[in-house]
Amino acid sequence: MIGPQPSAQPQGPSPGAKAQEPLEVAKEGGGASQRAKQPASAGPAAAMELEGSPCLGRVVRFLLPHTAIEAPLPQEEEQQFYRGLERLLGPKQGCFGQLFAAAGWADVTEDRFLRKLLVREGQGEAGRPQPGQEVTVKLLGVLEDGSLVEKDPMLTFTLEQGDVIQALELGVQSMQLGEVSFLLTSFQYAYGHLGRDPDIPSDASLLYEVTLLQIRDSPDLGLLPPSTRISLSKQKRERGNFHFEREEYQWAMQSYQLALGILDSPGAVPPSPEEEEELQEHQVKCLNNRAAAQLKLQLFEEVLASCSAVLHIDPDNVKALYRKGKLLSERGEDQEAMKILKRALQLEPTTKAIHAELSKLAKRQKGQAERPAPTDVGDLVQSAACQSRWMDPNDPQPFKDTS
Predict the structure, then answer these.
(1) Contacts of 21 (CB under 8 A, 6+ apart)
(2) Can you name the residues that pair with 136 across neighbouring β-strands?
(3) CA gap 135, 156 in Å, rounded
(4) In what order do the strands lie in the sheet with 114-120?
(5) Which of residues 12 and 307 earns the better pLDDT score?
(6) Which letter does DSSP use for residue 203 in this model?
(7) Distance between CA atoms of 359 and 365, rounded to whole angstroms?
């Protein structure tokens, strides 16, 4: 049978068996201890001795009997899900490959790496979600070995904003309100070559059962209180960090931009001084993270703009000062770079990477440069890719890329 199996019931002691005492106290005196007898079945590993304080003159021994914890039975909805998988696959596991070519499935993508099998019809074309709308789905997902790795009774996300894997983005857009379908996806539309630690291996295909529960328009950001906008923005930023760690820099940059858009929206309710400070704090994080993604994409003018936006809010932000100063240095704008990097050094005098950049600038100004400085942004594609701290793992790493 596919899916988790209930464990055998642990056998308890017989009705007439005498229970072991969990605590044994031995008094010591006259050079020999007077101890209660320990059960013969208890070995050295079954007891821990805690040597008593000299003033107490006693030894406390805790007996640790073997404990069996029963695995919980799968919930009814999971049992139904696995029964559906058995009807789909038969009693064997690891047979997703045959489904990619099976009849009765609809191809969501032309390459046939994302397919859909209708289980229950929805409410018609009028109930089909559109890009930008919020949807709520019930979700169960398994690997080929039957391991349940995705379960969410009320997963809510906005279509085409990178909040979920592409299989769910595209699959849900093909569904109707109330519809239940299986979605079969190859790794290209799921978690790719990297997988997802610790439960989804690399290059893993997944099979989902998805129920489309709700469709609604996205909320008007102008009507949301500052606390809600901060919470929504944080979710987008954290999703951007997820993409960034997976080296999906285009998606990461989009998530950071969406987060900034939420924070920048004028609200109907003016923020309190504390909320205004928190809004600016999140803006700085999003801008710095966007700059990191832009660096990976070699969008150097955009990086400078993001760093300048950070410094407009927080003139003493060392991460933005360092990135901007280094980039200006590699463009050959030595005077401006020197000014910015000196300011960064004043704020963090122990950071070796800042010292290194200032040393390079000083050598170049004295005519001792190791290489000619590039003169325009186009030249930076070569120089930055080879020499930049943020793209060279051998250079010092003073700052985490994203926060």
Answers:
(1) 36, 63
(2) 156, 214
(3) 6
(4) 106-107, 114-120, 180-185, 206-216, 134-142, 148-158
(5) 307
(6) T
(7) 10
Lay out the sheet containing 58-63: strands in order across.
32-34, 23-29, 58-63, 47-50
**DSSP single-letter state for residue 190:** T
Helix (H) / strand (E) containing 318: helix 318-331
> Which of 261, 254, 301, 268 is closest to 282 using CA atoms?
261
pLDDT in tens, 261-303: 999 988 767 889 999 999 999 999 999 999 999 999 999 999 9
Give the pLDDT mean for 84-113: 84
Confirm whether pTM is higher than 0.90. no
Could you give phi then psi for residue 41, rounded to 5 degrees?
Answer: -75, -15
Angle subtended at Cα 13 by Cα 10 and Cα 16, rounded to the nearest 5 degrees: 155
Spell out the residues 6+ positions from residue 120 whose beta carbon is closer than 8 angstroms to its own. 178, 179, 180, 181
Angle, helices 226-245 vs 249-264, to 10°: value is 170
Question: What's the burial of 17, exposed, middle or buried (CB within 10 Å: 0-12/13-18/19+)?
Answer: exposed
HSE-up of residue 253 (Cα within 13 Å, Cβ side): 16
Q: Cα dihedral angle (304, 306, 308, 314), rounded to 10 degrees? A: -140
Q: What is the dihedral of CA 128, 133, 136, 140, to 10 degrees?
A: 70
Cβ neighbours of residue 61 closer than 8 Å, sequence gap 6 or more: 23, 24, 25, 26, 38, 47, 48, 49, 50
pLDDT in tens, 226-244: 999 999 999 999 999 999 9
Closest residue by Cα to residue 35 from 27, 47, 45:
27
